[in-house]
Structures are given as structure tokens and as C-alpha cells.
């Protein structure tokens, strides 16, 4: 099928390349000339395992192209909207400016019978609005939220755990759902749940999923706070809870909490939208979820201060990690980087290392010192703080090697990813998050 993908950021670039890899003819459109040029040459503007291979395969086969010109999308049967919906400046609500701009540019080339498929994460009610905007063209609007995880984006797109499509009522909606079934045929199995619903439900599924995941993480972090004052161990607690299959162990990893371009902004946008709709109380708890999450960062700063006798001023601190999670170079709302910035603000001599994200981190926070060498980061450090659980730190870093480089012997494990016995055995004072 002929597809266009409008917006070639994280979501769009992955979607365009994976759709080409399953045999579609895809044109990716973006207003950013640098992005289009780099993707057109087969270079991915961000780190995502497996993406570069399928991008290059697609370009070579001729099934994947990139352009800045919306006229090049005119032939497509299905147009995916994959632009960003960041948090508005000075508000918790989502900024829909890019969604509307994309539609403005698409409208002149949109033909009767085509499908416009929204993939961006939007406040409930947006699809209804956009459907009205394209009504006169004879095209149909569908909402098809995306559930991919950074670091697993290609795999999640090629083998999704569910496909949700929000369609209008009537024959046009049924036909649109069939077209999307066809689009995703090679990226699903006969058992992949394919849920056809209305616009509002499809929009809500996405934010509700992220709100649930965020709540799960903050729940275990709230238990970590209690563990810290009672001497309980949150990792054992999470294991024990996780054996209940109704609860499950995933996303019960206590630590410095969630970050990234999705969970934090999505819980805030859902709260803002619910308030607009007069049902703010229904999700008032999400404010607490956010607060618990942010308190974990304070806790690390307090632990660092306590370990150095009350002040971090001019003390050398190695921060291991900058990305908001491993297998990603994304530093948006990274809790670890925020901790590094706060310590720097208190006068600490902070050095940050990360296998993939130092360049992105430097662009955002040029005041910090960065190195890609773990040894250089650890050399002469008084404290080591692990904030992103890359294998390089979790599995490959030996405590005795760290001890041979560091001046101090204090380790704060912001992800509960290290083995306390090993680190204590090497002479370190180990401090996890809610962990004995
Ligand atoms: C999240 C969702 O998991 C995806 O399903 C969704 O499609 C995506 O947002 C999106 O809206 O686009 P992602 O942001 O890639 O995906 O990251 P997650 O794997 O969900 O991790 C989010 C944060 O939670 C990370 O900072 C991670 O370190 C943290 N986390 C995760 C914990 O602190 N504890 C855990 O147990 C799990």
C-alpha cells in the first residue's frame, strides 16, 4: 500500500522504516530539512537498536523515501500523523500546534477516500475535532495510538501486543478499520488483538496505559519511602508482590523514578484535560504519582549530601548514566540528569558518563562535565551514583575496579541494579533506594 508518515521524529521515523520493511511504499514527510537529509542518507538522528538496518534496507529497495514537500504525499492511500505533542510552555496541557500544522499542510493534497491516521498522543476529544476539519475532503480520520517503547521500538512496531483503532460510526468507519487491518497484516499474527472502537476510547487507551505504568512505578517508589524508614527491603517486597499474577513484577522497579518524553508529560496532560472536562477529581491521584516520582530525586541528593558530611560543595561526584533509561540516547526529563544538574547547582564537581547520551545531555545542560569513558568518570570520584542501569554499569563494572579508581567509597544505586553484597565486599558503603 502507499503510505505517508507525517513527522519523522522518534515515532514517525520508526513507523516509516518498519512499514517499508513489511512491504509498503512509504514517504516520510518532515518540515526539518536536516532530519530529512539525514534519514534520506540512512542515518538515524537518534539511537534505536535495529532502526538503521531497516532504514537502509528500505532506502535501497526504493520503498522508503523522505521529503519536505507535502505534495509528495498526495498519492498515498493512508497518511499517518506522527508529530510530537509536547507539554505546553507554562502549562501541563499538551501542545497540539504540530498536529494542526501537519493537517494544515496535508489538507491541500488530501484526496477523497484517503485515510488520515493519527498516531500522536493527544488529549481526548482531539480526533473528533480533526475529523471535522477534514470532513469536506471526503477523507476519513482514524485514531491509532502507538505503544512502542524506546529501545524496543522496531520490535514493538513489528510485533505489537495490541492494535487499537478509533473510527467514526457507520460504513466509513468499518471500511477504515479494514484498511488498517490490511496495513498491519504483516506486522501482526492472527492472535494479535485488533480493537476497533470510537475516537475517545482510542485516545484514552494510550494515556490511560501510560498513566497506569507511571502509577505502578510511583506505587513501588512510595513503598520504597516506607521501606527506608522501617528497614524493609523494597526489592524483596516487589518480588513478593509480583508473584501475584494480578499484580505482576514488571514496572515495579523502585529507584529514581520515571522520565522520558512520554510518561511525565502524559500524566500531566491527562490531568489537565480531565480538569477541562470537569472531572479533574477522577485523576487527582496522578498529581501524587508525579510528586512521589520527583521526591525520589530529592532523596538521592540528600543521600549524597549525608554521605559527604552534609555538603557536596566542591566534592567530586561521578554520575553513571544520562539517558532516561538504558538502550536509548534520549535525555528528555531524565531523572538521572536532573539529579546531576541539582548536585552541580549545589556546587558539586559532577562528572556525567553515558554510553550513548552524553552529546544530547551536553546540548541540554552544557554546564556539566561529560565523558564517554567510565574510568575517567570514576577516577578520583568520592561518590558514584548510578542513575541509568546500562549493562556497562550493572553487569560489567567490577566493584574492585571501581575501588581502584575512586578516591571515596560511597555508592548510591539509583536503580537498585547493583549487587549490594559485591559492592560492600569491595569496601564500599552501598545505598540503594528503599533497599536494605
Ligand atoms: C513508555 C511506555 O512504556 C510505552 O508503552 C509508550 O508507547 C511510550 O511511553 C510512549 O508513550 O511513547 P518509554 O517512554 O520508552 O515508553 O519508557 P518506559 O520503558 O515506559 O520507561 C519509562 C521510565 O520509567 C524510564 O525512565 C524507566 O527508567 C522508568 N521505570 C520503568 C522505572 O523507574 N521502574 C520500572 O520498573 C520501569
Give the tags.
alpha/beta; 43% helix; six-stranded parallel beta sheet; 2 domains; Rossmann fold; binds uridine-5'-diphosphate-glucuronic acid; 436 residues; 17 helices
Topology:
Blueprint: E1 2-6, H1 10-21, E2 25-29, H2 33-40, H3 51-61, E3 64-67, E4 78-81, H4 97-106, E5 115-118, H5 126-134, E6 140-143, H6 153-158, E7 163-166, H7 171-183, E8 194-197, H8 199-230, H9 234-242, H10 263-276, H11 285-307, E9 316-320, H12 335-345, E10 349-353, H13 358-364, E11 369-371, H14 374-378, E12 383-386, H15 391-394, H16 399-405, E13 410-413, H17 420-425, E14 429-431
Parallel strand pairs: 1-2, 1-4, 2-3, 4-5, 5-6, 7-8, 9-10, 9-12, 10-11, 12-13, 13-14
The structure holds uridine-5'-diphosphate-glucuronic acid (UGA).
Could you walk me through the main structural features you see in this protein, from its secondary elements to its overall organization?
There is one protein chain. The protein is an alpha/beta fold. It is built from 17 helices and 14 strands. The protein has helices spanning 10-21, 33-40, 51-61, 97-106, 126-134, 153-158, 171-183, 199-230, 234-242, 263-276, 285-307, 335-345, 358-364, 374-378, 391-394, 399-405, 420-425, and strands at residues 2-6, 25-29, 64-67, 78-81, 115-118, 140-143, 163-166, 194-197, 316-320, 349-353, 369-371, 383-386, 410-413, 429-431. The strands form 3 sheets. A 6-stranded parallel sheet has the order 3-2-1-4-5-6, sandwiched between helices. Strands 11-10-9-12-13-14 form a 6-stranded parallel sheet. A two-stranded parallel ribbon has the order 7-8. Helix 1 links the parallel strand 1 (2-6) and strand 2. Bound molecules: uridine-5'-diphosphate-glucuronic acid. Uridine-5'-diphosphate-glucuronic acid binds at residues 121, 146-150, 210, 213, 217, 251-253, 255, 257-260, 262-263, 324-325.
